[in-house]
Amino acid sequence: GVAGVVLPEKDEKVIGIRKGDAIALPFGAVTWWYNKEDTELIVLFLGDTSKGHKAGSFTDFYLTGTNGIFTGFSSEFVSRAWDVDETTVKALVGSQSGKGIVKLDGSIKLPEPKKEDRDRLVYNCEEAPLDVDIKNGGRVVVLNTKNLPLVAEIGLGADLVKLDGGAMCSPGFSCDSALQVTYIVSGSGRVQVVGVDGKRVLETTVKAGQLFIVPRFFVVSKICDPDGMSWFSIITTPE
């Protein structure tokens, strides 16, 4: 698909997005997402919601549509802000009747992506050099400030792990007290999480589409089923 990204105090970037892309979006970024092809496009949003309008939920701040911010201002205020007449204001504010996700008319043309706009915004975890490569075991790609500097602003890092059938990711934890949010991308397997007091707090089977959290200082280990398993984790440290 295609994504438009406007970072604070920056010009809009229009990027082509594909399977495996990780995109760093700092607080306050304005975005639009467009599936220009006749295929399914799935975007997984993971982030810190502790400072949201409602803690624990993403704060979606719509500029347009039935719940857009300009629908709340009077036409006088909007016409003066945009320096247009009130008839134009009514067309601009009232012509978009959708909310959130909308189907575009075939005649509408959106900006085309620019290759250079991917720089410093996107890192493709499927195509990146491997940070860990264990024969018959698995592969790891780590996303941090070295390959995607913008994550320093966000305060989050990430990794993509792919285990071969029957392989194990041995027990590990983050030494700088980071917590992990892990989303199972494909396959299935078993996971165990143990707390600092040595007590097991989670033992379950996970499969594609499921997500679980590993709290700070807790230790996690996974053993995948014969078909293998891959997962994407965000970690509350950019390193």
Automatic annotation (TrEMBL):
Keywords: Disulfide bond, Seed storage protein, Storage protein. GO terms for molecular function: nutrient reservoir activity. InterPro entries: 11S_seedstore_pln, Cupin_1, RmlC-like_jellyroll, RmlC_Cupin_sf, Seed_Storage-Functional. It holds the Pfam family Cupin_1. The keyword Nucleotidyltransferase does not apply. It comes from the Eukaryota. Residues 128-239 form the Cupin type-1 domain. Belongs to the 11S seed storage protein (globulins) family. This is Cupin type-1 domain-containing protein. It comes from Linum tenue. The lineage of its organism: Eukaryota, Viridiplantae, Streptophyta, Embryophyta, Tracheophyta.
